[in-house]
Every structure is written in structure tokens, then in C-alpha cells.
Design goal:
11 helices; alpha/beta; 314 residues; single chain; 12% strand; two-stranded parallel sheet
């Protein structure tokens, strides 16, 4: 995979007048429209609107106004967030003929108010109910890794992960119930963050599980995610400070986690643990017997299935 520019790489270019927001958004839209994956990754583009907003962002920047670190940067939203005047399909054809919504989801509005340029809606697992990223209605985005063999991108925020990895979006807004941000981030080689759910309003999004859903960012780096999260949460932008590795302590479950994993995955995992241990981190292998009971606990779908049924029963 090629280097993915961070929020700060691109913001620096904008500040130094090496590129304009209009150029950046135009390049992004061209990449989407000319890519074999683009029409699968995105279920809807806001091309004209995005270019207009980019020009407005450039005009504000020219007067010395920069609303946030996402100012003028192309971002995307998962297709379960409401945008006023649009239909929210949540990756399904069942909702395709629903009436357009009348209000924009608060988290989406916060991105708009921060100067982020929303270029479109990203594809997802139907109703967010799977970690694979497969969608029989709108197509299944493929991971940038080994694309010739069409590896799955992970879900349910499948399009969100591929959009960042393929530089079709600097940051993607996704949701995570049991891994729906973190899985596509891992499968696509980027960073994903599931924040504490109550910190970002869930109003204006199609739920999977009221108790476990969380909205959050997928982006090129941890700092990109921290900055995007702070904007979504309506708090001052966060600048991270890396701790000393020698101050870190990691707990690793001694069962279940690596069962049936590919030998290469196990090898990379073990090498990573060895590297951080050599750098001074403390590693503890611990027993979590509850993990071995999860399959039994969730044999009828668990809490997520019950809460999804409540929303979908009609």
C-alpha cells in the first residue's frame, strides 16, 4: 500500500498554498469516479455540493478563517447517518423508498460546521449486521490488500475503510457496535477508533444496538482519529502525546484470540509483541474464562440481536 496522507499532511499543503480545497476535492471526486472500487465504495456522491463547499472553504481561508483541522478536507459518512433532504438506506433496499429525512444528524452537522467537505455516503453491510463487509444490493468493497483476489474489506463500515485506504476520503465517519469501525480499519491497513458511545450523539442514525452502538472515525493515523473524534464530540481538538514505552503495560488473553488464525497473522502478532516488549513495555498473559463462554452466551444472537429486532420488527 502507498502512503496515505494524514489530515496534517494535507492541512499543511493548504496552509502553504500548495493546493486548494477545490483542487483537493476535485482530485478526490475524480479518484472515486475513475476507480473500479469507487461506485461500490460510495452509494451516493455529493459532487456539486462538495465543490461548492470547497470553494467556500478556500474563500474563508483567504480571509484567515480556519474552522478546524478538517477545514477544506474531503470526508465521507456511512450510509446510516441522516442528511436533510436525503433518504437513509443503511445499506438496504428495504428503506430505499422511504421519505427523505428533514434533519441532518448532529454528528454530521458538526463535521459540516467544522469545514469538512462531505463528498458522499459510503457503502456498508446491510443494516450494519455483520463484520464481513458484504452487501448483496450495492456490491461489496474489497480490501486494498490483495485486491486481485477481492479480499473482504471488513464491516460493517466497509466502504468507510476502503475510502480512506484508497484516498477517496481523508476521514470516514463510521459506526461500531462489535467491531464495525475496528474490523475494516484492520483489514484495510488504516486506523479506526470506537469512542465511548455517549460522547458523540447517536441521534439521526439507523441503530443496530442502542446499548452498544458508537460513532467514530476511520483515518490514516491515531492523531487523525483523535482530531476527528474531538470535532464529532464537540470538544477542543486533542493533541496526543506519546507515552514512554517503558511505562506501558499490556494484557494479552491466553486463549481464544489466536485460535484458527492464519500462521502469518500469528507470526506478525508475536513479532509485534516481542518488539514492544524489547522496547520496554510489560506484557502480561492473563486468563479470561468468559471469552470461552461467549459462543454459548450469544447462541441466540445476544443483546445486539434483541435490540435490532426491536427496531426492525415492523
Amino acid at each position: 500500500m502507498t502512503h496515505i496522507p494524514t489530515v496534517y499532511d494535507l492541512q499543511k499543503k493548504l496552509i502553504n498554498a500548495e493546493i486548494t480545497s477545490e483542487q483537493l476535492v476535485s482530485d478526490t471526486l475524480n479518484r472515486i469516479q475513475n476507480s473500479d472500487e469507487g461506485n461500490i465504495v460510495f452509494t451516493q456522491l455529493y459532487a456539486d455540493q462538495a465543490l461548492q463547499q470547497a470553494r467556500a472553504s478556500d474563500a474563508l481561508r483567504a480571509t484567515g478563517i480556519k474552522r478546524s483541522s478538517l477545514e477544506g478536507l474531503p470526508v465521507s459518512i456511512k450510509d446510516l447517518f441522516d442528511v436533510s433532504g436525503q433518504v437513509t438506506t443503511a445499506g438496504s433496499v428495504v428503506l430505499a423508498k422511504s421519505a427523505p429525512v428533514t434533519e441532518t444528524a448532529p454528528v454530521v452537522q458538526r463535521l459540516i460546521d467544522a469545514g469538512a467537505i462531505i463528498v458522499g455516503r459510503t457503502n456498508m453491510t446491510e443494516f450494519a449486521f455483520s463484520g464481513l463487509g458484504i452487501n448483496p444490493h450495492y456490491g461489496s468493497p474489497s480490501s486494498p490488500w490483495d485486491r486481485g483476489n477481492k479480499r473482504i474489506s471488513g464491516g460493517s463500515s466497509s466502504g468507510a475503510g476502503v475510502a480512506v485506504a484508497d484516498q477517496m476520503s481523508v476521514m470516514s465517519l463510521g459506526t461500531d457496535t462489535g467491531g464495525s469501525i475496528r474490523i475494516p480499519a484492520a483489514f484495510c491497513g488504516i486506523t479506526g477508533f470506537k469512542p465511548t458511545a455517549r460522547l458523540i450523539p447517536s441521534t439521526g442514525s439507523v441503530p443496530l444496538s442502542y446499548s452498544m452502538d458508537s460513532s467514530g472515525p476511520l483515518a490514516a493515523s491515531v492523531q487523525c482519529c483523535a482530531t476527528s473524534f474531538s470535532i464529532m464530540a464537540g470538544i477542543p481538538e486533542i493533541t496526543l502525546q506519546a507515552p514512554k514505552v517503558s511505562n506501558l503495560r499490556f494484557a494479552i488473553p491466553d486463549s481464544i484470540i489466536l485460535d484458527d488464525a492464519e500462521p502469518y497473522v500469528v507470526h506478525v502478532f508475536e513479532q509485534t509483541i516481542k518488539a514492544i516488549e524489547t522496547a520496554g513495555a510489560k506484557i502480561d498473559y492473563i486468563s479470561i474464562p468468559e471469552f470461552e463462554k461467549l459462543a454459548y452466551i450469544n447462541r441466540k444472537g445476544g443483546l445486539t440481536a434483541a435490540e435490532a429486532w426491536f427496531w426492525h420488527r415492523n
